[in-house]
Design a protein that fits this description.
With 597 residues, this protein is mainly beta. It contains five helices and 33 strands. The structure holds copper (II) ion (CU). Copper (II) ion (CU) binds next to loops.
Length: 597
């Protein structure tokens, strides 16, 4: 109980009333617990253990990850930076020295903390100028797998990130013989600003998987000339190719595990019969991965920093910024490949689980590249090839209570063969010329995602995530805040309710209020949304055992909702974690106001 009292003492300022424990699912009172066994991932992985004070220096250095010279923003000399290991109940101090030639600010992703410690320059603190240092200091009120990264410009894309692991104060719920952080990232030798500019000029320039005349012939054979032609024309009108599920691609990216390209084969050791905990952290700027370990079942035990009822799976799709922990139990004396194919199948990250260093297992061939049909996009059209209608549970969530989209962004029925473009919200200075709208946004929480729905292998879905502990706030929401995710593919403008960040004010909420956040994705892309400073509880049919998420992926034309209780005042970013979408304007602030009564 002492620990619980300790945690209560660290209540975040004015978060009174419903109690300081609102920040996470309830836990049984924990005794003075045994510590989780922990093994260093590999001899060269820098791990700072359960300390309370950390010194970090970020600087720009030449680096060679791909055979070509480039530069990186390294933390304490490396990328990823050191794995920070904290303990729940401690107060940590992090001194961050900025030796880069530009301002920075580090963000502790998924951590509930006072607003000025959250690290977003210009919003929550002035930022750290070149040659200056900043001291972060805050209590640790939670445990689990998280990460940290620069929240300034494109610094994260060039290496400024690392793993963050917090040991529970009491007896851990999850026990494993070995424990490894697996940080996935998408390295580019290019300057990210150049990539962003390229997108503005030609949004699909990195999509080298485009379907060609030869696949058109296949389509004709399958569906007949008329149907194939009309499908092609409709995609052409939307100026998007159905394979453009993700951008950029391996044309510029090399996918890394713990900073190593596939050929360098980062290796985690085990002895046959042991249980191994793998903490997957997607620190990529723009890439989703489908993770599998051929020959092993992965048991998903921890999602976004919180323990979940174990779900055995063959595969796991991980969105940008998401964190999932799995347990595997290899019994054979042989190597296994940890295979993380990028969602667009343009490349993969790879590591090895082996009894001895230097061993390898075969690298599997990649699964079929996901293609989308008009039906996947919430459009009436050709028979769906990837997502059968029966896969999609269509159930509408209750009516609007809060914000509505601005005039002009509401879906309208049009003739079936017309392109779905909308007139822009009439805003002076807005660059939004047309906003693509999905006609039939659907609940997609029970499906793992494009290209995975008809595989023999079992992939995790959000519907299967069940928190081990019930949520603490049982109050129903008193209002709904509706966010339409919108975009203009041709001009690489990404927005919310038809407006970019620069064109919109904050979303005001009150400390301690209970609200529903509902997302309707009207674009063709996945958008992994991160809310700073408070948990999002996914309404996924698990009753009071809703999973607590720090980032929620919203699939194309998906309609999903979460419950939120703000626990600290201030301006908290809510944004798509695809760096190029975020920088283009898919960003809002949630302003938590103190209670007045
Ligand atoms: Cu996005």
């Amino acid at each position: 109980m002492a620990r619980d009292l300790g945690r209560r003492a660290f209540a975040l300022g004015a978060a009174a009333g419903t109690g300081a424990l609102l920040y996470r699912p309830a836990r049984a009172a924990a005794g003075p617990g045994a510590r989780a066994p922990f093994t260093l991932a590999s001899p060269d992985e820098p791990v700072v253990r359960a300390a309370r004070r950390f010194d970090l220096t970020v600087e720009r250095q030449p680096i060679n990850k791909t055979g070509a010279p480039s530069w990186a923003n390294v933390i304490n000399g490396g990328t990823p930076g050191p794995t920070l290991r904290w303990r729940e109940g401690d107060v940590v101090t992090i001194e961050l020295m900025n030796r880069m030639p530009e301002m920075t600010g580090f963000h502790w992703h998924g951590i509930i903390l006072p607003n000025p410690m959250d690290g977003v320059p210009g919003l929550q603190f002035p930022g750290i100028q070149p040659g200056e240092r900043f001291t972060y200091r805050f209590p640790i009120l939670q445990s689990g797998t998280y990460w940290y990264h620069s929240h300034m410009g494109y610094q994260e894309q060039k290496g400024a990130y690392g793993a963050l692991i917090i040991d529970p104060a009491g007896t851990p719920n999850i026990r494993a013989d070995r424990d490894y952080a697996i940080v996935l990232s998408d390295w580019t030798d290019e300057d990210p600003q150049v990539i962003a500019n390229n997108f503005k000029l030609m949004p699909d320039m990195y999509n080298f998987n485009r379907r060609t005349v030869s696949t058109f012939a296949t389509d004709v054979e399958r569906s007949g000339l008329g149907a194939a032609m009309s499908e092609r024309l409709r995609w052409a009108r939307m100026r998007m190719d159905p394979s453009g599920v993700q951008a950029p691609t391996a044309y510029t990216y090399t996918y890394l595990v713990n900073g190593r390209p596939p050929a360098a084969n980062w290796t985690a050791l085990f002895r046959p019969g042991e249980s191994v905990r793998l903490r997957f952290i997607n620190a990529s700027a723009a890439s989703f991965y489908d993770i599998s370990i051929p020959g092993l079942t992965m048991e998903v035990v921890h999602a976004h920093g919180n323990d979940v009822v174990p779900v055995p799976v063959d595969g796991l799709r991980i969105g940008v910024a998401e964190t999932f922990d799995v347990i595997v139990r290899p019994t054979e004396d042989r190597a296994f490949t940890i295979f993380a194919e990028s969602m667009d199948r343009s490349g993969y990250a790879r590591a090895t689980l082996a009894p001895r260093d230097g061993m390898e297992a075969p690298i599997p061939s990649m699964t079929d590249r996901p293609l989308r049909t008009m039906a996947d996009m919430g459009m009436p059209g050709m028979a769906p090839a990837q997502i059968g209608a029966s896969d999609v549970r269509s159930s509408r969530i209750g009516g609007l209570m809060g914000m509505s989209p601005p005039p002009g962004t509401r879906p309208e029925r049009r003739a079936a063969n017309q392109p779905r473009t909308m007139d822009p919200p009439q805003q002076p200075g807005t660059g939004v010329q047309s906003v693509f709208m999905a006609e039939m946004p659907q609940r997609r929480i029970g499906i793992p995602g494009d290209g995975l729905n008809h595989l023999d292998r079992r992939f995790l879905t959000y519907a299967e995530l069940r928190s081990v502990h019930p949520g603490v706030d049982r109050r129903p929401p008193t209002r709904e805040i509706l966010l339409h995710l919108t975009g203009n593919m041709e001009r690489f403008i990404w927005s919310i309710n038809g407006r970019k960040f620069s064109e919109a004010g904050p979303i005001d909420v009150t400390l301690g209020e209970r609200f529903r956040l509902r997302f309707i994705n009207n674009t063709m892309m996945n958008h992994p949304f991160h809310l700073h400073g408070m948990w999002m509880e996914l309404e996924n049919g698990q009753g009071d055992h809703r999973p607590y998420l720090h980032t929620v992926n919203i699939q194309p034309s998906e309609d999903l909702s979460l419950l939120v209780t703000p626990v600290a005042t201030g301006q908290w970013p809510l944004h798509c974690h695809v760096l190029y979408h975020f920088e283009a304007g898919m960003f809002r602030t949630v302003r938590v106001l103190p209670r007045t009564a």
